[in-house]
Amino acid sequence: MYPPIEPYETGRLKVSEVHTLYYEVSGNKEGSPVVFLHGGPGSGTDAKDRSFFNPAKYKIVLFDQRGAGKSTPSAVTEENTTWDLVKDIERIRELLNIDKWHVFGGSWGSSLSLAYAQAHPNRVKSLILRGIFTLRKSELRFFYQDGTSHLFPDAWEDYLAPIPQAERHDMILAYHARLNSVDEEVRLNAAKAWSKWEMATSKLYVDPKQLAQVENDTWANAFARIENHYFINEGFMRDGQLLETQEIDKIRHIPTLVVQGRYDVVCPATTAYALKKVWPEIELQIVSDAGHSAREPGIAKLLVEATDKFSNL
After folding, report:
1. Catalytic (active site) residue 292
2. How far is Cα 30 from Cα 276, in angstroms, rounded to an integer?
3. 253 included as an active-site residue
4. Which residues pair with 124 in a beta bridge?
5. What is the Cα–Cα distance from 242 to 133, expressed in whole angstroms?
6. Which segments of the chain belong to CATH 3.40.50.1820?
């Protein structure tokens, strides 16, 4: 990854009566524009996210999605849907006077990248995607109900702990009740348990620093509440919508590279493979010694190679 840099522009953009977004621009003012779409939803951006791009060649745009990171108010699910975020991306593009840009996103960021590209294909120069996630019921069931639990039974016990036995047949629904409780202690305990489950399973080798992030009340609350809100509403899309042929046909012409960890148990490789089957024109690179995180060495290396490859488009 490239050395750390600081933004040369930061700002706030009011996108509704409820939400105001934090955004920043770094790199080369005259460079090829790229927008970074963070995962979660609800996680927010990190300064290290700038380092996927050559700062001499890219005009790098990062922003925190509704309710996440430095955007305000934190953890609010009202007026917070996939299609609100797609509109927000366009608002930022127009604000910065960008005609077309590269779109980079992993995990939920890959879902949002696909949704945005399918809505505005004439605004996308390329797609660089990681850990493909399309919010199908089968994907949500695998991670939150019956799949990853078989590989991480110890972490799964901690995830089950806040939920009574009688409610465990639908963990997303059970967590929804607690993440929206009027009791702050109940809400925060649920948020930390939900967040810890993902942090404990995101890397091939569990990262203690990533697990420690869960202890940040504000971060955990936003991450868990917004994720759960999107997942209980199935991404505000038809099941499998992002993979439908008529949707892929809208973006088939866009140069696209996908990096996927072989041992990703958050967004398993079967979804990236399903995308490749309906869209054979994409370049799919499977990293044999990685899980889900963009920070894993093999994944980070290929993502930077991809941004270098597309920098002159």
Report:
1. yes
2. 34
3. no
4. 101
5. 9
6. 7-136+237-310
pLDDT tens, 34-88?
Answer: 999 999 999 999 999 999 999 999 999 999 999 999 999 999 999 999 999 999 9
Predicted confidence (pLDDT) at residue 209 exceeds the cutoff of 90: no
Residue 145, token pair as written in the block: 């109900």
Whether 107 sits among the annotated catalytic residues: the reply is yes
Looking at the whole model, is its pTM more than 0.90?
yes
CATH superfamily of 7-136+237-310: Alpha/Beta hydrolase fold, catalytic domain (3.40.50.1820)
CB-CB contact of 279 with 248 (8 Å)? yes
CB 19 within 8 A of CB 80: yes
For 223, list phi and psi in degrees, rounded to 5.
-60, -50
> Which listed residue (64, 71, 292, 293) is catalytic?
292
For the chain, the average pLDDT equals: 97
> Of 32, 107, 110, 195, which one is the catalytic site residue?
107
| Reported confidence tier of residue 212, pLDDT bands at 50, 70, 90 | confident
15 touches 91 (CB < 8 A): yes
Cα–Cα distance measured from residue 30 to residue 53, given in angstroms and rounded to the nearest whole number: 14
Task: Give the burial string for 283-309 (b: 16+ CB within 10 Å, else e).
Answer: ebbbbeebbbbbbbebbbebbbebbee
